[in-house]
Specification:
alpha+beta; 33-stranded antiparallel β-sheet; 16 helices; 42 strands; globular
């Protein structure tokens, strides 16, 4: 049990802002008054105590969160509990509010390899005890364990809209249903939306996207289409909307403004700087330079700053003394495409430490006169900015000021607006404070316009506290004397986040009709997509759907749809599960702030800067290295775009490091041929780099785009005892035992051949022995100086063992389109590949009725591994009495229940694979040595 108590420091009074002064026509970032003293005053009236309990495996099992200081009466104890299944994986999550029990996640179904197959949520009644079908999210995967279909389905809480009437969220049955298409290099190429368009209003129709990448895996095009109601066809048309809108009297669906009116923080996003486009986005296009800087970003309707920013000038393109950061964005404009409502330009200034200190957006720019064209001309950055100021008349402008503390953390952000070249007016100030772990714990919003300093409905100050970020928050406070005080006008809320569900319980007897959504008694859970972006929000207490959203690839919100009856704030966690500060144009990621409509970070990557003791060795500002649709950044510290390795070498780092390796081993790889490249027509080097991993660390290495098709083309090679002529063939022989080439589909076919009697077991044993002969060089691989030498050692070992001559395999088929016979082989191979993959172990072992398993040495009395078979492994693990711990077992094959001979052969193949009975805890062979 761990007890933690925290008190938060009261944020100091803000410094005054003097009468606005200008530099280059923009407000200067100056403050007046006396800086606060070094004395820190704590809110001693509100200590926050959290109690966490853990089991014997140090897994969290429950957490009791601080009581609500603003509860009407004695506050209930709010606790979250987490249970685990027999595999040690999370099984359910529940919120306990006093004596009330509210399941958040009722059940999680896992596949054999631990991937989540489905999640059943706790909305199995309507809040009054009347049962309903719970909401379920499902994910399916391909043979490479990439998600290929993600869907969430619920029971509607309202009847379907009448013909011609506007659909509402209450009638939505399929909340999300996305089909994901990947290429050979793990790039996301399509997201196909299969939702029913009849359930969604105009401006929110199901959206599919088709993505293209350049040779360095950066996104260069995203083309969108929308499913139409009558024809079900996907076309480029859906009504454009401004997500910030309120429905008002226009008859439009409820938007962000409707929901934000119930937000204790009264979030007021910066206005759209261009007129609302007629249509939703149809096409986005990017181009990149050698530093992974965006050089150009355009959209089909030239919606400046909202969707794209045009031609981009980075630091490496200018010689101005102030432009010291080669990968920083200093200027972007689309006025060269013609002035008008969608034309504009943006300028960005940086401090000496590389932090973004000012950003000015100039929008709806026209030529200043009929004889002077609005354009960026001149040899230097200063000249181009001056030319734009002198030749462009812009109808709407926004100026952002960012102030940083001595630890390079954003301390304050401001926004000024002006229209028609008039006077700049400050609109909002946001101030932030952090704890010793660099985590933001205080956010203060100060409105300067359209707010009430007295007892009005829109107080000028709102404070959000994060005593335990991600677990416990208080929103809608005001700074009092020595404390943070609740405010009745704002409707201060204490929000508990339990299993991601934002839980509010403000009174023992909430006001409202039973069975309907209750703002004062809600458990709103965000439903997320591939990159953890909130697609919708579900109240798991009643099953009500409270909102739905879409986002642009760089993080800017595209649409927002609120339920017409749910009076609740928008879910704060949006793009990739992070909180947006829409008032000041940023998204908070934890370690950095993203400027989503620039597609850049607001500060350089501290890991880059400190790695070379200052300066900028690489691109410190770009977001995800251009892989902006299929990846996410957890904290803002993943410059290469892949944080899933938990700090290990990332995919893009590996590609860059191994690129020169492939030049040196190209001829050696030719010795195996390339069945894959014969049909995909891609350079072997690119495919190998896309799938290669660090051999010195013992990771897998797969060459080829679709190993299953390659196997189907080379089935004969698997059944022969000759040197392989394809990488897939080599995989079948060298694969799993070495963990060097891991084409498990090929291995599956070989095991199937043994089990069915088509391949003598002795031949399979010789294959394994050859693999071990190569594996005996593992010390040489491990001792290699980096991956480059490791690749060369590996290829030498393979060539030595199999005696092939690289000169015998000229690279005739490493380019060009797929020949028709190979394309036909691909079509013919598909059904058999699905069946043959049933025999594979681990993450591909999903077919067959019984399982061949391997128990590692730590689970056996002898300390040696054990190979066995079971019709149902969990039952066998629970009932075994021979001292072998089968809960540690991992599948290595399968068989069909009832086929006794096939079971014996498959189990014997597993024994041979894992070293034979002399090296295992097994007492005997399943098949005698002379049976074959």
């Amino acid at each position: 049990v761990i007890w933690t108590t925290r008190q938060l420091a009261v944020i100091s009074a803000e410094l005054g802002l003097p009468a606005t002064t200008y530099a280059d026509g923009r407000p200067r970032a100056e403050e007046s008054g006396v800086a606060p003293s070094g004395t820190v005053e704590y809110d001693e009236a509100h200590p926050y105590t959290r109690t966490a309990t853990f089991d014997h495996g140090s897994r969290p099992t429950s957490m009791a969160l601080p009581p609500d200081p603003d509860f009407d009466g004695e506050p209930p104890l709010v606790t979250g509990t987490l249970t685990y299944n027999t595999r040690g994986l999370p099984a359910s999550a529940t919120a306990h509010i006093g004596t009330d029990v509210h399941p958040i996640v009722a059940e999680i179904e896992y596949l054999r390899d631990g991937l989540v197959g489905s999640i059943t949520y706790g909305d199995n009644d309507d809040g009054t005890g009347v049962m309903r079908s719970p909401t379920v999210s499902r994910t399916t995967y391909d043979v490479r364990r990439r998600p290929v279909r993600m869907s969430t389905e619920r029971a509607p809480t309202a009847p379907a809209a009448a013909p011609g009437a506007m659909p509402t969220l209450g009638a939505v049955r399929v909340v999300t249903d996305q089909e994901l298409v990947w290429d050979a290099a793990n790039n996301l190429t399509e997201v196909i939306d299969h939702r029913d368009p009849d359930e969604w209003p105009d401006g929110h129709l199901p959206q599919s996207v088709h993505v293209r990448h350049d040779a360095l895996y950066r996104v260069v095009n995203a083309d969108y289409d929308y499913t139409q109601r009558t024809t079900r066809a996907r076309t480029p048309h859906d009504d454009g909307t401004d997500w910030r809108r309120t429905s008002g009297a226009s008859g439009a669906p409820p938007g962000y403004g409707d929901a934000a009116a119930h937000d204790p923080m009264r979030s007021e996003p910066a206005p759209m700087v261009v007129p609302t486009p007629d249509d939703r986005v149809v096409s986005l296009a990017w181009s990149w330079d050698y530093l992974a800087n965006q050089r150009e970003w355009n959209d089909d309707q030239s919606a400046f700053y909202e969707r794209s920013i045009g031609q981009i000038t980075n630091g490496d393109q200018v010689t101005d003394p102030d432009a010291t950061r080669p990968s920083a964005l200093y200027l972007a404009t689309n006025v060269d495409d013609g002035a008008g409502p969608g034309a504009g330009w943006v300028e960005v200034d940086y401090g000496r430490g590389g932090n973004m200190e000012a950003m000015t957006v100039h929008a709806q720019c026209e030529d200043v006169s009929s004889s002077v064209a609005c354009e960026a001309s001149g040899p230097t950055l200063a000249d181009q900015r001056a030319a734009l100021r002198g030749t462009c008349a812009c109808a709407l402008e926004q100026h952002y000021v960012y102030r940083w503390d001595e630890l390079n953390r954003l301390a304050e952000a401001r926004r000024y607006d002006r229209a028609g070249g008039g006077t700049w007016q400050i609109q909002v100030r946001q101030r932030y404070r952090y704890d010793a772990a660099n985590v933001r714990v205080v956010k203060q919003t100060l409105d300067a316009q359209a707010c009430d300093t007295g007892e009005g409905l829109n107080p000028c100050e709102r404070v959000a506290l994060y005593p335990y970020p991600g677990d416990f928050e208080r929103r809608g406070l005001q700074r009092g004397v020595g404390e943070y005080a609740a405010d009745d006008t704002l409707g201060t809320e204490t929000q508990y986040v339990i299993a991601s569900a934002r839980t509010v319980f403000r009174a023992a007897t909430p006001i409202g009709e039973e069975g309907l959504f209750q703002r004062d008694e809600r458990l709103v859970l965000p439903l997320t997509d591939l990159i953890q972006t909130t697609s919708a929000a579900l109240d798991v207490r009643t099953g009500w759907l409270t909102e739905a959203s879409t986002y642009y690839p760089s993080g800017g919100r595209e649409t927002f749809l609120a339920d017409h009856t749910a009076e609740v704030q928008p879910e704060p966690m949006g793009f990739t599960g992070k909180e947006a500060e829409e008032e000041v144009g940023l998204v908070y990621f934890g370690e950095r702030y993203l400027a989503p409509r620039l597609g850049r970070w607001g500060s350089p990557d501290p890991l880059h800067v400190h790695a070379v003791r200052g300066g900028e060795p690489l691109n410190s500002f770009h977001y995800l290295a251009g892989d902006i649709l299929g990846e996410r950044d957890e904290l803002g510290l993943c410059p290469t775009g892949d944080c899933r390795g938990g700090g290990r070498e990332t995919r893009h780092d590996r590609r860059a490091r191994e690129q020169p390796v492939m030049h040196r081993v190209y001829s050696a790889l030719e010795s195996a041929g390339s069945a894959v490249n014969e049909y995909v027509g891609r350079p072997l080097m690119r495919v190998a780099v896309a799938h290669g991993q660090d051999l010195a660390n013992g990771a897998s290495l797969v060459f080829g785009a679709d190993a299953g098709i390659a196997v189907a083309q080379r089935t004969a090679e698997i059944l022969e005892d000759n040197p392989p002529t394809s990488i897939a063939g080599a995989a079948a022989i060298v694969g799993v035992p070495l963990r060097v080439v891991s084409d498990r589909t090929a291995y599956a076919m070989e095991v199937r051949a043994v089990a069915s009697g088509r391949m003598p077991r002795t031949r399979f044993v010789r294959h394994i022995q050859r693999a071990r002969s190569v594996a005996s060089g593992g010390a040489r691989i491990a001792a290699a100086e980096g991956a480059s030498e490791a690749f060369e050692v590996l290829i030498d070992l393979l060539v030595e063992e199999y005696g092939v001559n690289p000169d015998d395999y000229p690279p005739d088929n490493f380019h060009g389109d797929a020949p028709e016979d190979v394309a036909q082989a691909e079509r013919d191979a598909r059904p058999s590949i699905a069946r043959d993959s049933d025999m594979v172990g681990g993450d591909l072992a999903q077919g067959g009725d019984g399982v061949i398993y391997f128990v590692p040495g730590e689970g056996t009395p002898s300390g040696q591994g054990y190979v066995g078979s079971a019709d149902h492994l969990p039952t066998r693990a629970a009932t075994a009495t021979d001292g072998r711990d089968r809960t540690l077992a991992r599948p290595i094959g399968s068989y069909h229940v009832g086929d006794r001979e096939g079971r014996r052969r498959a189990e014997q193949a597993g024994i041979d694979l894992m070293g034979g009975v002399n090296n295992l805890d097994n007492r005997r062979n399943e098949i005698a040595q002379d049976d074959d």
